[in-house]
Amino acid sequence: MSHTRTLAWHETLELHELIASQSVGLIKVKKSLKKIRDPQLRHLYSMAARGLEGNLRELLPFLPKAPVFHREDERADLFFEAGELLALAKTSVRNYAIAITETATPELRRVLVKQINAAIRLHEQVFQYMYQRGLYPAYNLTELLRGDAMHAQKAISMR
């Protein structure tokens, strides 16, 4: 096994996607946990939160090995709210793409194509919103990774 000083660009981008999506997911799970009354479901949510926290704690030490790194920001709440919507749109596009490849009924295929196009437009609009406000610096890997680290730390520390 090789011990490199930096990650490759492609694995850095995958690391970004994992940290960003799991940070947003952790915030969502922790916010939902406060509202859940059913003990068994509450336990499942607690397990999910611990799992996501553990994942982030294991992934964060790799960020300093990225080809570029470091950031501080105070707009984390806005990032999480917009990021949650961006993740929903992205997941919808992926889910529709899979569903379309499994569809044999022409009428259903037309509906799914219409809906995937709407999900693609939503993703673009949310991305542009985030990009224009500096919440998603897609063309600046240093800033992108700094934001990932900050958002993940905030998600972990949230009670």
TrEMBL record:
It comes from Bacillus glycinifermentans. This is Spore coat protein. It comes from the Bacteria. One of its GO terms (biological process) is sporulation resulting in formation of a cellular spore. Its main location: other. The lineage of its organism: Bacteria, Bacillati, Bacillota, Bacilli, Bacillales. It is found in: Spore coat. Belongs to the CotF family. Keywords: Capsid protein, Sporulation, Virion.
